[in-house]
UniProtKB/TrEMBL annotation, chain A:
<dbReference type="GO" id="GO:0005829">
    <property type="term" value="C:cytosol"/>
</dbReference>
<dbReference type="InterPro" id="IPR011882">
    <property type="entry name" value="PaaC"/>
</dbReference>
<dbReference type="InterPro" id="IPR052703">
    <property type="entry name" value="Aromatic_CoA_ox/epox"/>
</dbReference>
<dbReference type="GO" id="GO:0010124">
    <property type="term" value="P:phenylacetate catabolic process"/>
</dbReference>
<dbReference type="Pfam" id="PF05138">
    <property type="entry name" value="PaaA_PaaC"/>
</dbReference>
<dbReference type="InterPro" id="IPR012347">
    <property type="entry name" value="Ferritin-like"/>
</dbReference>
<dbReference type="InterPro" id="IPR007814">
    <property type="entry name" value="PaaA_PaaC"/>
</dbReference>
From TrEMBL, chain B:
<dbReference type="InterPro" id="IPR009078">
    <property type="entry name" value="Ferritin-like_SF"/>
</dbReference>
<dbReference type="InterPro" id="IPR007814">
    <property type="entry name" value="PaaA_PaaC"/>
</dbReference>
<dbReference type="InterPro" id="IPR012347">
    <property type="entry name" value="Ferritin-like"/>
</dbReference>
<dbReference type="InterPro" id="IPR052703">
    <property type="entry name" value="Aromatic_CoA_ox/epox"/>
</dbReference>
<dbReference type="InterPro" id="IPR011881">
    <property type="entry name" value="PaaA"/>
</dbReference>
<dbReference type="Pfam" id="PF05138">
    <property type="entry name" value="PaaA_PaaC"/>
</dbReference>
<protein>
    <submittedName>
        <fullName>1,2-phenylacetyl-CoA epoxidase subunit A</fullName>
    </submittedName>
</protein>
UniProtKB/TrEMBL annotation, chain C:
<dbReference type="GO" id="GO:0097266">
    <property type="term" value="F:phenylacetyl-CoA 1,2-epoxidase activity"/>
</dbReference>
<dbReference type="InterPro" id="IPR038693">
    <property type="entry name" value="PaaB_sf"/>
</dbReference>
<dbReference type="Pfam" id="PF06243">
    <property type="entry name" value="PaaB"/>
</dbReference>
<protein>
    <submittedName>
        <fullName>1,2-phenylacetyl-CoA epoxidase subunit B</fullName>
        <ecNumber>1.14.13.149</ecNumber>
    </submittedName>
</protein>
<dbReference type="InterPro" id="IPR009359">
    <property type="entry name" value="PaaB"/>
</dbReference>
<keyword id="KW-0560">Oxidoreductase</keyword>
Amino acid sequence: MTRDEAFLQFLLRMGDNTLILGHRVSEWCGHSPVLEEDIALANTALDLIGQTQFWLGLAGEVQGDGKSADDIAFLRDVWDFRNLLLVEVPNGDFGRTLMRQFLFDAWHSIQLGHLMKSSDERVAAIAEKASKEVAYHLERSADTVVGLGDGTEESHRRMQESLDYLWPYVGEMFQSDEVDAEMVAAGIAPDPASLRDDYDALITRILADATLTIPDSRFGHKGGRTGKMHTEHLGHLLTQMQWLQRAYPGSNW
Amino acid sequence: MYAQMVKSEAAQDDPEKLAAFQARIDAGEKIEPKDWMPAAYRKTLIRQIGQHAHSEIVGQLPEGNWITRAPTLERKAILLAKVQDEAGHGLYLYCAAETLGVSRDELTEMLLDGRMKYSSIFNYPTLNWSDIGAVGWLVDGAAIINQVPLQRTSFGPYSRAMIRVCKEESFHARQGFDAIRKMAEGTPEQKKMAQDSVNRLWFPALMMFGPSDKESVHSEQSMAWKIKMNTNDELRQKFVDQTVPQIEFLGLDLPDPGIKWNEERGHYDYTDPDWSEFFDVIKGNGPCNTDRLAARNKAWDDGAWVRDGLMAHAKKKAAASVAAE
Amino acid sequence: MKNEWPLWEVFIRGQHGMSHRHVGSLHAPDAEMAIKNARDVYTRRNEGLSIWVVEANHIAASSPSDKGPLYEPSESKVYRHPTFFDIPDEVGAM
């Protein structure tokens, strides 16, 4: 694997995460429990879509065949996607959506903190901008997880169920492969495995405030960030997201 | 019937106070929440502002219908920001209504069980991507014409909310026009979608101004109170005059063969919408009434544990900080 | 059970060194969430640099019926305004 090939994979991993999670969060628009949350979730989704444009735009540049961020987002099939399984699973209830957001934000904020020091200036610049947005996402999702975890009996139960459901998708964030090794060697990005301690410290603190119990198991599903085996859900998501581009190819929108 | 109710309530108010109140309005003063106001003024405002707020919230649904199918990342972001604005507008308006002594939850419940209405336009479906352009351009365009004069309405909080809404609303109309223009100037299939949208949404957009003034029950008193600033027909004509040249600019066929420039009047003539359809939709028989209310009810019911959970946590936190002092 | 989130009034200081200005209201379970909600609801278009929130029922307000006694007395104190005084042109800016 050449460095550029690895770099491209890395950029797709970053951009597909924000693309797919942004899409999932946007599904809430108009359906949230209260107006203030509806508006806040839309802001999160907008940030993620904006970050996608940067990451996939840069991926297109690195690929060098003239593809735009839109081409990459709308014209690839499931096996080409490099997002974590965590972000593609369905929203579930509001609690599961916010729990997933928190589990992702915690990783995202740590990851971006490292990427701000990337040897690649373009990566560092995107990370710099995104990190401010994500710091707020994390503050908000953490507060909500704490509020709902330590709220009523029902909200506590639902949040614990969400955590139990999502926990097996957390491990994938820290699985390193040859792409990561190449990125570490180039000083572009950190080794995913090296983020785990900071991550555990952060989520342990918040989940304790939320009076929630982290499941014992360290088992982690995998196959998203390598593209080897996505969930069945991603294909359905793409049939919606890509519908117009696929049905009416070559149109300007 | 409602008009009668308003009348009988007005009769109970002290005539001297009523006259002084009317004099304030005539002098262009703003009425603020703590000021004395006739019971019917309060009631009419709650109804009007509440319906307006509900329209914004239900209005999220037809456009939200396309957020996950938006064809580019930029269109997705624009549409999401736009639908988010609708939620914001609903929020501003609910807050304005709350100053009159009704809570947002009470208003919401009245929407959900059908005691309060919302604009009938949102009971029409969005069937192709071009509808997103058409809704922004035609529906928000019509809404702006309705709303701009309301910035000068007599009730302070309503007027201030409308100033904020109008400031944000012109983004909506422009993004809509921009989106449908891309379609009208695009491939034959895209142009077909654009034409379909205009044909389908034209008459419902005209209905947004309400029935002809001859049939509108609330008009006269509301105009005197400056809750309503222009007649329905005036505003509708303004919309037609403004929009017909825009349809022509897009190179689309006019959706109504009756549209013709009338030199003598200095306005476009147009065919009146089918008011029996309008009243059907109001009664709950529009294409999407059932689905729209079901979606709002589901969001509200499914969200109850979230609202209660966060409130319970806040109370625990407050109690703990009191105990610590 | 009625469990509605309380109403908060939102004040925002914008870009140009002006005072905090009342921009509207919102609902939130507590002050922290009210600030976050205010950020999401009222600064979507880059309007703010600082946010205050006050629970609406903690605001004490003057009564409209006091308008006369409260504000009319100042109407007659015209000498408080700089334009009350004639300063000859040759004196220059003052």
